[in-house]
Design brief:
Pfam family, one: SnoaL
Number of helices: 5
Structural class: alpha+beta
Protein name: Ester cyclase
CATH topology: Nuclear Transport Factor 2, Chain: A
Number of domains: 1
Radius of gyration: 16 Å
Mean pLDDT: 92
CATH class: Alpha Beta
Largest sheet: 5 strands, mixed
Organism: Paraburkholderia sediminicola
């Protein structure tokens, strides 16, 4: 298989995760796409850096934002490493990071890199704009005093 074909296949795996697991809540596909030894190098708050942690995060997002989905703006791959820039959207209908449901429509940007090994997501690095999300949920106004309280 050429490097170009490997990159395209890796991008397809990551896109399936974004669309079918995160966007549609299909956790059978999660089990198919994530390696058992998956490592998250940048886990989100209250999540472990492994497959169980990723599964828990996805369940928490789907519970808090039942219509959670992403618009993928672009993807690039270098061999088995796929970088994706996307904007997540949803309606806040469940508790998220301690914030009770507000009914607000939200959106926040994310850039992540996922290594795909043997057709499965094996590693993740990412940055999500949780500051913007928490502002939209009314968790804080974004001033210095409120930001210090989130440390």
């Amino acid at each position: 298989m050429t490097r170009s074909n490997a990159s395209e296949e890796a991008k397809a795996v990551v896109r399936r995760n974004t669309e079918e697991v995160q966007g549609s809540g299909n956790f059978d596909v999660f089990e198919e796409l994530f390696a058992d030894d998956f490592v998250d190098h940048t886990p989100q708050p209250n999540c472990t850096p492994d497959k169980d942690g990723a599964r828990g995060l996805y369940h928490a997002l789907r519970a808090a934002f039942p219509d959670f989905h992403a618009d993928i703006h672009w993807q690039v791959a270098d061999g088995d490493l796929v970088t994706t820039y996307k904007t997540y959207h949803g309606t806040h209908e469940g508790v998220f990071l301690g914030v009770p449901p507000t009914g607000r429509k939200i959106h926040f940007e994310t850039v992540d890199a996922m290594r795909v090994r043997n057709g499965k997501i094996a590693e993740h690095w990412g940055v999500a704009n949780l500051f913007s999300l928490m502002q939209q949920l009314g968790a804080f106004s974004g001033g210095e005093t409120q930001a210090r309280g989130t440390e």
